[in-house]
């Protein structure tokens, strides 16, 4: 079976990529970071999720227009006692998925949610990430557990305002139903690609959290200029997908 | 014809009328028949035409001069001219017709003769021709016979020829079949030029064409082996094929090896790793030549080791090309961040390396996440073994620079709390790595060593702290009985260490594991503190007799206990302190009881009563003779009205109010019991007190024990 592999497009899809991006997934304990990531990489809800100990790694290659992007995903523990460990993994991350639980205002706000200090805990996560990760860090705020609408404590509009004020992307998702689970990762990738396109971000530089993959390098060699025009137009060539070979993500260790 | 018709038509009518009369008359019948004959039929007309023609011709032939007139006349009256043609030469019309009628017979006979003569002449000619034809036919027959004979001969001759041709055809078919078999065989058992080139030549890149050729070679060899295993045994052709394919195959493996080595050198130098499909296929094939694979992978490993080490050193000392992210060493002053960043870097490198190696060996990732437990017990697959070994070597190289730095950091720590934090950080990574890359991995071993070292350094530091504590002793001038500053400081450190420990406990750790994990620290830190309190208090007591050592010790012990209490895993230490505390409380209670008995003036009386052996009446013993007893009871009565009954000044120095109450109440209870005993003794006849009731009733509580309980605010059952 591996013998046939080297011809098929599907395999190529898995093997090569244009960019490699490092993401961190952060936020208070129990907000559903591991579940969100699990749904993104395994396409299913993670039952009986335990608190993450330290950090866990997984990866998945996504397609954006004609670009293939491999995401290195670092799921961090939200518990305070792991803060000193997890902070070391922020180093050089290109994207951060900041997760909160829409049913628990107490997890993001101080004791007086109506005061100006609201979302103070989120601000702390954000400040930490901005201080330690890549200087071009793209942050996506994710209000998780959107399936529990009846228990909602954090209003969409409020979170959205906070996101706008803090210059981060925002959306709500459910790791249970899978609703909007891919969007934050795609959104961050798109945003990072755009800043590469605009020249603000240089993948050649270490610490940017992004680097060129083999595919992109090959193209650079031949044309010496990268164009992302295809990104917006999204004209893709049809790909034969061997479904049995296609795993939405792969892990290490 | 028209001439005769006109009269006939009229006569028909006539005849019809007379038909019945003349019907039997043969002449009339004959006549009628003649008359009824009509000459207007085709044959009659034709013969008449012939006749007229004949005559016309004969005239023309006689006189040429009349021809012109004849034609003129023709134009004038066609009918008459035609009817009269032969006889109508000149002069009078009807002359020629008459002449014709006259000569018709003769003319006809003449014509007939003429015709016969002509016929004869022609027939003789025909006869002549027929004779000639006969000769020809005869000749032809001879020729035909000849031909037939010839044909017969040919036929015979060609029959054998045909036979031969048939045979040849068959042979040709056989040959054809053989040929296709041979070409099939050749295509199946030999490589064509292109394939050989693909395998051997450096110009054909390692890729699909190359791999296809290799596959074919393998197939040939396989088929060949099957063939040679047949009854005839190895054939020469078979052996030849095996030899030539073997050489090609070896060359192709060499080619893969060279290619891999080259590629490995390239990708080995990259910090970002990607495995192409071709590379994975190449590695998969090379596994059939373990020595080549080993060699290639060894060089890969070498490159990877160097590359990783270089990137690690860069991250440590230089940071990114533009200084971002900052070099890790920039935070060397912050030991937790410094060590944490280093280990996180290594961890991330491992993740990338693992993905690379899994890709290289075509291992489908088991979707395990870093940090989650990997079973190392079962026998690993060959690929897994490779991956582990390569990973181990690559990451192992990082251990040297990492170890040096961690060791330096450990050594330079002065605070035992930081030391302990480092211990925990290292232990966390030790745990993670053991689960991720195995217990025997170089990095795991290094972390084990470092953790041990950090532990040692931590224990050294807390032990030193404890020695200092013992050495410090107590301030002799200090009359206070509260825990001294060194103990407070020590407890503060202990408290922080405990909370660090608390945060390091894994959710699923059992209580006994939690206790065991802290036992050593408790042994080192708690016991000496207890010891210090007791020993140095005793030392101080020797110098300052008035200083209340007992209360001091109790205060220290309860304080230490209160420090430990929030942490469940210190239950053992708590128990041991509690044990000491209980004994001490008992001692203090005894002491306190004795003191209040003395203060109340009952001590001597009570002691005498207790020791009394009935050898002589109590009233005869000096210390309990009635006058003495009276004084004692009087003192007691006075004491009962003093403040000491409710509140002991001495015990109020106990920091724990609960303890104060407990000790004091126990002492009072015993006092009440002692008073009761005294009363009983006094009332006994054998003790010969006169007016015992009066004696007892003269002072409070008037010999009524129940009243005493009331005064004490206690109940007899001790509640
Ligand atoms: N209803 C609902 N429950 C969710 C969702 N996502 C996660 N959960 C639940 O939330 C709990 C915590 O999820 P985790 O993913 O383990 O949380 P975490 O953020 O990784 O926590 P730490 O690892 O301790 O930082 C689990 O019991 C999940 O079942 C969601 O979208 N909807
Ligand atoms: Mg988690």
Automatic annotation (TrEMBL), chain A:
Keywords: Membrane, Nucleotide-binding
Pfam family, one: Ras
GO molecular function, one term: GTP binding
Compartmental location: Membrane
InterPro entries listed in its UniProt record: P-loop_NTPase, Rab_GTPases_membrane_traffic, Small_GTP-bd, Small_GTPase
GO (cellular component) term, any one: membrane
Main location (coarse class): membrane
Family designation: Belongs to the small GTPase superfamily. Rab family.
Name of the protein described by the UniProt record: Ras-domain-containing protein
Species annotation: Tetrapyrgos nigripes
Automatic annotation (TrEMBL), chain B:
GO biological process, one term: protein transport
Domain Conserved Oligomeric Golgi complex subunit 6 C-terminal: 236-696
Subcellular location(s) per record: Golgi apparatus membrane
Subcellular location, principal: Golgi
Entry keyword Acetylation: no
Ranges for region Disordered: 62-85
Annotated ranges, domain Conserved oligomeric complex COG6 N-terminal: 96-200
Coiled-coil region(s): 144-178
Gene Ontology CC annotations of this record: Golgi membrane; Golgi transport complex
Membrane topology: Peripheral membrane protein
Keywords: Coiled coil, Golgi apparatus, Membrane, Protein transport, Transport
Functional summary from the UniProt entry: Acts as component of the peripheral membrane COG complex that is involved in intra-Golgi protein trafficking. COG is located at the cis-Golgi, and regulates tethering of retrograde intra-Golgi vesicles and possibly a number of other membrane trafficking events. Acts as a component of the peripheral membrane COG complex that is involved in intra-Golgi protein trafficking. COG is located at the cis-Golgi, and regulates tethering of retrograde intra-Golgi vesicles and possibly a number of other membrane trafficking events.
Family under the similarity heading: Belongs to the COG6 family.
Subunit description: Component of the conserved oligomeric Golgi complex.
Protein name: Conserved oligomeric Golgi complex subunit 6
Source organism: Tetrapyrgos nigripes
């Amino acid at each position: 079976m591996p013998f046939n592999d080297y011809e098929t497009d599907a395999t190529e899809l898995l093997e090569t990529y244009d960019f490699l991006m490092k993401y961190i997934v952060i936020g208070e304990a129990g907000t559903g970071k591991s579940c969100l990531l699990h749904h993104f990489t395994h396409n299913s809800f993670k039952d009986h999720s335990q608190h993450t100990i330290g950090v866990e790694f997984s990866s998945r290659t996504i397609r954006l227009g004609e670009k293939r992007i491999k995401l290195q995903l670092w799921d961090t523990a939200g518990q305070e006692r792991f803060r000193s460990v997890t902070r070391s993994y922020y180093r050089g991350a290109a994207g951060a998925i900041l997760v909160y639980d829409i049913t628990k205002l107490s997890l993001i706000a101080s004791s007086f949610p109506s005061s100006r200090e609201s979302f103070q805990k989120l601000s702390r996560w954000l400040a930490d990430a901005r201080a330690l990760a890549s200087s071009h860090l793209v942050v996506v705020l994710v209000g998780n557990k959107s399936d529990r609408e009846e228990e909602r404590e954090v209003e969409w509009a409020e979170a959205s305002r906070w996101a706008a004020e803090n210059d981060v992307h925002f959306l709500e998702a459910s790791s249970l139903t899978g609703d909007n689970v891919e969007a934050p990762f795609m959104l961050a990738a798109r945003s990072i690609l755009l800043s590469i396109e605009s020249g603000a971000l240089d993948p050649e530089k270490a610490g940017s959290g992004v680097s060129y993959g083999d595919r992109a390098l090959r193209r650079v060699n031949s044309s010496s200029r990268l164009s992302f025009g295809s990104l917006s137009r999204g004209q893709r060539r049809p790909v034969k997908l061997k479904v049995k070979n296609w795993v939405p993500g792969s892990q290490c260790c | 014809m028209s001439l005769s018709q006109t009269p006939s038509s009229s006569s028909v009518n006539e005849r019809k009328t007379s038909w019945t009369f003349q019907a039997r008359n043969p002449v009339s019948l004959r006549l009628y028949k003649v008359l009824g004959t009509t000459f207007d039929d085709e044959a009659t007309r034709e013969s008449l035409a012939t006749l007229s023609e004949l005559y016309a011709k004969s005239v023309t032939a006689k006189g040429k001069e009349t021809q012109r007139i004849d034609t003129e006349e023709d134009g004038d009256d066609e009918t008459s001219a035609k009817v009269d043609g032969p006889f109508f030469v000149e002069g009078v019309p009807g002359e020629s017709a008459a002449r014709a009628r006259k000569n018709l017979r003769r003319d006809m006979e003449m014509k007939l003769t003429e015709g016969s003569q002509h016929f004869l002449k022609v027939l003789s000619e025909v006869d002549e021709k027929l004779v000639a034809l006969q000769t020809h036919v005869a000749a032809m027959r001879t020729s035909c016979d000849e031909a037939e004979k010839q044909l017969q001969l040919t036929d015979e001759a060609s029959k054998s020829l045909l036979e031969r041709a048939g045979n040849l055809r068959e042979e040709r078919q056989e040959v054809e079949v053989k040929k296709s078999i041979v070409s099939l065989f050749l295509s199946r058992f030999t490589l064509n030029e292109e394939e050989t080139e693909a395998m051997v030549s450096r110009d054909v890149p390692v890729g699909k064409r190359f791999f296809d050729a290799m596959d074919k070679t393998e197939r040939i060899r396989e088929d060949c082996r099957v063939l040679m295993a047949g009854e005839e045994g190895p054939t020469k052709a078979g052996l030849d094929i095996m030899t030539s394919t073997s050489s090609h195959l070896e060359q192709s493996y060499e080619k893969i090896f060279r290619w891999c080595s080259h590629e490995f050198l390239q990708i080995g130098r990259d910090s970002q790793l990607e495995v192409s499909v071709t590379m994975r296929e190449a590695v998969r094939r090379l596994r059939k030549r373990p020595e080549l694979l080993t060699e290639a992978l060894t060089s890969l490993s070498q490159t990877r080791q160097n590359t990783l080490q270089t990137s690690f050193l860069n991250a440590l000392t230089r940071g990114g090309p533009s200084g971002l992210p900052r070099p890790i060493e920039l935070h060397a002053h912050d030991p937790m961040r410094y060590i944490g960043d280093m280990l996180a870097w290594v961890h991330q490198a491992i993740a990338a390396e693992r993905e690379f190696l899994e890709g290289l060996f075509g291992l489908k990732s088991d979707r395990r996440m870093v940090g989650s437990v990997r079973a190392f017990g079962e026998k690993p697959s060959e690929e897994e073994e490779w991956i582990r070994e390569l990973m181990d070597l690559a990451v192992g190289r990082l251990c040297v620079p990492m170890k040096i730095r961690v060791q330096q950091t450990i050594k330079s720590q002065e605070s035992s709390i930081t030391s302990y934090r480092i211990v925990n950080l290292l232990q966390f990574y030790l745990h993670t790595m053991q689960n991720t890359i195995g217990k025997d991995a170089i990095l795991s071993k290094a972390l084990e060593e470092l953790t041990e070292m950090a532990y040692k350094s931590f224990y050294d530091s807390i032990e030193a702290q404890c020695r200092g504590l013992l050495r410090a002793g107590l301030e002799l001038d200090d009359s206070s009985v509260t825990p001294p500053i060194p103990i407070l400081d020590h407890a503060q450190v202990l408290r922080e260490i405990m909370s660090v420990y608390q945060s390091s406990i894994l959710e699923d750790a059992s209580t006994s594991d939690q206790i065991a994990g802290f036992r050593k620290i408790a042994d080192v830190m708690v016991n000496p503190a207890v010891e210090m309190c007791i020993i140095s208090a005793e030392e101080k007591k020797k110098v300052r007799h008035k200083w209340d050592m007992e209360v001091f010790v109790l205060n220290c012990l309860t304080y230490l206990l209160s420090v430990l209490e929030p942490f469940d895993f210190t239950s053992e230490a708590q128990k041991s302190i509690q044990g000491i505390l209980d004994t001490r409380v008992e001692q203090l209670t005894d002491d306190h009881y004795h003191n209040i008995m003395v203060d109340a003036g009952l001590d001597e009386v009570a002691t005498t009563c207790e020791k009394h052996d009935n050898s002589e009446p109590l009233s005869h013993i000096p210390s309990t003779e009635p006058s003495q007893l009276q004084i004692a009871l009087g003192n007691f009565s006075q004491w009962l009205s003093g403040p000491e009954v409710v509140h002991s000044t001495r015990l109020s120095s106990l920091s724990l109010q609960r303890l104060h109450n407990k000790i004091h109440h126990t002492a009072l209870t015993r006092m009440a019991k002692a008073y009761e005993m005294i009363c009983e003794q006094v009332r006994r006849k054998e003790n010969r007190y006169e007016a015992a009731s009066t004696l007892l009733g003269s002072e409070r509580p008037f010999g009524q024990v129940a009243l005493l309980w009331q005064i004490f605010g206690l109940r007899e059952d001790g509640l």
